[in-house]
Design a protein that fits this description.
Layout (H helix, E strand, L loop, with lengths): L11 H9 L4 E5 L3 H10 L3 E4 L3 H4 L11 H12 L6 E5 L9 H15 L3 E3 L7 H9 L4 E6 L5 H4 L9 H17 L3 E5 L3 H10 L4 E4 L7 E4 L1 H4 L17 H18 L10
Parallel strand pairs: 1-2, 1-8, 2-3, 3-4, 4-5, 5-6, 6-7, 7-8
Length: 271
């Protein structure tokens, strides 16, 4: 008799427990069904339906153009491919800043229409009303501090944040504030490793680093970067595990050659 093994879902409580016992949290981005299914089968803990879809899926220069409808489309596709991972969705630019009612509506639409498990918002104290409102509706919120790509035009650059003492102090304060508000985790992007360690030790909720060193409670990368599908992105924090751009290109070149020469399809490949 084959025993069907029940897949245990990762929840916000599970990632909290992982921090408490010192187990690192693995997180990657996903934007479509096929990739989400592979990442979930591999055992990833958290999948982020990132607004980075604006860059890697749609070819925009920044994350700003992506819409709420598009995020819901990507999130729904990911949800259909996942049995285990916790699915977090970015609230896109303009759907929560300065308008807590709009923020709540955006979050509710994402949860209802996609079936995802949580939302992520960029910023600290300045977006507390939005966070409070979303949490009051029972929607889990992940925070995001440090380099906040939606604020690219304010900073003017994607360089490391919080190197100056004043900004570092504010970041620690913001992290504590996000915890107090009720966020279940916080992403720390591109900040000095020593600061990320300090933040991780000073709050009880999990920290997920991207370019924040090895002392955060978990790590996140954009899947297309890790797999080498994107070719022209070489930040220090990125480890490429594959060079898929070259592998896929090589396969397609071979296919073209085989079609042109009449080698494909052969006798075994037809009816």
């Amino acid at each position: 008799m084959s025993v069907h093994k029940e897949v245990k879902r990762v929840t916000v409580h599970v990632v909290q427990a992982m921090k408490m016992r010192g187990e690192k949290i693995s997180m990657l981005t996903a934007y479509d069904f096929s990739m989400a299914r592979i990442l979930d089968a591999a055992g990833i803990d958290v999948l982020l339906v990132g607004d980075s879809a604006s860059n890697v899926m749609a070819g925009h220069e920044t994350t700003l153009p992506i819409t709420l409808d598009q995020m819901i489309y990507h999130a729904s596709s990911v949800v259909r491919g996942v049995k285990r991972a916790l699915i977090v969705v970015d609230l896109p630019f303009g759907t929560y800043q300065g308008d807590s009612k709009g923020a709540l509506n955006s979050a509710i639409r994402i949860m209802k229409e996609s079936g995802a498990h949580a939302v992520k918002l960029e910023g600290g104290k300045e977006i507390e009303d939005s966070i409070k409102r979303i949490l009051s509706a029972g929607v889990p919120v992940m925070g995001h501090l440090g380099l906040t790509p939606q604020s690219i035009y304010k900073f003017g650059t994607y360089t490391v944040r919080a190197k100056e003492e004043e900004e570092a102090k504010r970041l620690i304060k913001d992290a504590k504030h996000l915890e107090k508000l009720g966020c279940f985790a916080v992403v720390l992007e591109k900040i000095p490793a020593a600061l990320a360690k300090q933040v991780s030790e000073s709050i009880n909720i999990p920290t997920i680093g991207i370019g924040g060193g090895g002392d955060t409670d978990g790590q996140v990368l954009v899947t297309h970067d890790l797999l080498g599908i994107t070719k022209d992105f070489h930040p220090r924090f990125l480890r490429r595990y594959l060079e898929l751009f070259d592998l896929i290109k090589g396969s397609v070149e071979q296919y073209i050659k085989d079609v042109k020469s009449g080698d494909f399809p052969n006798d075994n490949e037809q009816y």
